[in-house]
Amino acid sequence: MLNLATQDNLKDVYKILYTYKNIFPHVRNDFVKHMIDSQSVIYDSGVVIIFKKYKRRTRIGNYIANKDDWVIKQIANQSLGNGNASKVISAFIDENKHVVLSVRKNNERAIAFYKKNGFRVVGTVTWRNDIDGLVMRTDVNFPSSSTHDVKVWPIMKDLASDNDLFWNIGK
Hints:
With 171 residues, the chain is an alpha+beta fold. The chain has six helices and eight strands; from the N terminus they run ααβββββαβαββαα. It has a six-stranded mixed β-sheet with strand order 1-2-5-6-8-7, with helices on both faces. The longest helix is centred in the last third of the chain and has 14 residues, at 147-160. It starts with 9 loop residues before the first helix and ends with a helix. Mean pLDDT is 84; it is low at 143-171.
């Protein structure tokens, strides 16, 4: 069982996230406080995960996440390379199964980390200032009976033709 952050952890959680201000420039103290109050922040072994559960189908770029999918908004490790982030994200996936996230396309280290931990690219997204990103999820073999699959898999076929994007990142 993962540990949820409390207001007593606010300063430590924010400090870890602030370390990555170039990746999370929009994360402010009041946002972190609100997410902790909403019980949407894990703080375990020096790793912070801010997450939420979608209450309805939600578009992320050219991908549509399902109702009840869990989305990781931010993940940060106090100490890079210590293995704690893999342990915590694996536990999060074990508890929640259907996990989606987005990552900057040029963040090769993060993409390699997510792939190592079972995520696969399912779409693309572009944020403000023309920052390109990838949408990734853990369970790409979700049920084929939903109309959701019809919309997603053609996107996958288009993306899969870009070998640099899919197979060379992190190698």
